[in-house]
Design a protein that fits this description.
The chain is an alpha/beta fold and 454 residues long. It is 41% helix and 12% strand. Strand 2 (75-79), helix 4 and strand 3 (117-122) form a beta-alpha-beta unit.
């Protein structure tokens, strides 16, 4: 096995146990990037000497017998909308070219405190909205990797790093995770501080993570949790034991609710067929549940908040450099400028109401199952694909995870999205791990049965 095949937990354990050094792992990742970056184009900033210097410092601490954090010496990627004091943060726009923050974003500081080596900055779309960056899908470079966390998803999928930071305001973690075939996890709104992260919308912005297993996503996300006075939506609370609970067997077989959502007509035929097979496989463990009519306008409510908040958050960019922004972003900002106060207030007020309706569903079911995307990653690099299957869950602020369980007609990955109750992230990750193991076990059994028949 190559060193770059190590997941987050395995890499941390190998470094902690002295089986491999941080320098060796970082060098292996840098070699992988050197071999693949021309094709994948996941990175917007990478200083190899600085990465090696961080790794050497991690190795010295271990040799000195210092206390080691849970991610000690492991290289990670950081989406280029999170401030880094030792690297530029340019937010995917020429308007912020050369921008050098004075301090780390809270999420970056927590990764460093856990011992991680920040290898570099990964590509984001323009101001983390829709206009693509340079990244390509590592499974097929003619296809989009999704967005806006395109570089982070592609870097993890291509084994350039075992873990990366992303963000989601609509579908920017779940969608690229689905397209690139990795695990993408978006925690509940307010669990992870966004201080030092580019702001689009206070109500909709989430920090998210990419990894290759549920266990790794839980481990990496757990170090990010916590109250931060600089983020008004975080609050003091006991730390969620994501890693421990995610690794446990459920006390009872989970009950899953298959939900089509109002976006179902946009799903490609192959997605419908794949989910029909998944539902047949799960049998009595899954039931079809229709969202109440109250959700009929949820997608429009999300759009109202997003556009109005973009008009405020990017007012300076619009006024000073409108001609350097993409046409689509300018249109969204101008649409936001036309939004009225009553429609914005109403859209904000609907969030807790719909979250309460979801709580009723989660009284009976452990998680909602729904597509992560409309289908495989589209061919072409002009678009990042549709986030429509993520919109409602982001609007409500509930946790979501994408699992690479399905394969489309072109052989590209398709994610299965699981959604949990607000704040019940640990149970969601445990249920997701159960589902991944259940599907993998059934696939193995089917292959064995087929082999016996031959």
């Amino acid at each position: 096995m190559e060193l770059t095949d190590l997941g987050l937990a395995a890499a941390a354990a190998a470094i902690r146990d002295g089986e491999v050094s941080s320098t060796e792992l970082v060098d292996a990742c840098l070699d992988r990037i050197a071999a693949r970056e021309e094709t994948v184009r996941a990175w917007t900033f990478l200083d190899r000497d600085h990465a090696r210097a961080q790794a050497a410092a991690a190795d010295r601490l271990r040799k000195e017998g210092a206390a080691l954090g849970p991610l000690h010496g492991v290289p990670v990627g950081v989406k280029d909308i999170f401030d880094t004091a030792d690297m530029p943060t340019e937010d995917g726009t020429v308007l912020h070219a050369g921008r050098q923050p004075a301090r780390d974003a809270r999420a970056v500081a927590l990764l460093r405190a856990a011992g991680a080596v920040v290898l570099g900055k990964t590509v984001t779309t323009e101001l983390a909205v829709y206009t693509p960056g340079k990244t390509r899908n590592p499974h097929d470079p003619s296809r989009t990797p999704g967005g806006s966390s395109s570089g982070s998803a592609a870097a993890v999928a291509d084994r350039m790093v075992p873990f990366a930071l992303g963000s989601q305001t609509n579908g920017s973690v779940i969608r690229p995770a689905s397209y690139c075939g990795v695990v993408g996890y978006k925690p509940s709104h307010g669990l992870v501080s966004r201080a030092g992260m580019l702001r689009q919308s206070r109500l909709l912005d989430h920090v998210g993570v990419f990894a290759r297993t549920i266990e790794d996503a839980a481990l990496g996300a757990e170090v990010l949790l916590g109250h931060d006075p600089k983020d008004e939506d975080t609050r003091p609370r006991a730390r969620l034991p994501l890693s421990r609970v995610a690794a446990e067997e459920p006390p009872l077989p989970p009950r899953l609710a298959f939900v089509e959502t109002p976006a179902w007509p946009e799903a490609e035929e192959s997605v419908g067929a794949a989910f029909a097979e998944l539902r047949e496989l799960l049998g009595e463990r899954i039931a079809t549940v229709a969202l109440p009519g109250a959700f009929a306008d949820a997608i429009e409510c999300h759009r109202a908040i997003l556009e109005a908040d973009l008009a405020v958050s990017f007012q300076q960019e619009y006024e000073r450099g409108r001609e350097k922004l993409s046409r689509r972003l300018v249109e969204m900002i101008e649409s936001g400028q036309r939004r009225t106060a009553p429609e914005y207030i109403r859209a904000c007020a609907r969030r807790p109401i719909l979250r309460g309706v979801l709580d009723d569903i989660f009284e009976e079911f452990d998680a909602i199952v729904t597509p992560a995307t409309t289908g495989e990653a589209p061919v072409g690099l002009e678009s990042t694909g549709s986030p429509i299957f993520c919109t409602i869950w982001t609007y409500c602020g509930v946790p979501a995870v994408s699992l690479p369980l399905l394969v489309g007609p072109a052989g590209m990955p398709i994610g299965v999205q699981l959604v949990g109750a607000y704040g019940d992230d640990a149970r969601l990750l445990r249920t997701a791990r159960w589902l991944a193991q259940f599907v993998a076990g059934d696939g193995k059994a089917r292959r064995q049965r087929s082999a016996r028949r031959r």
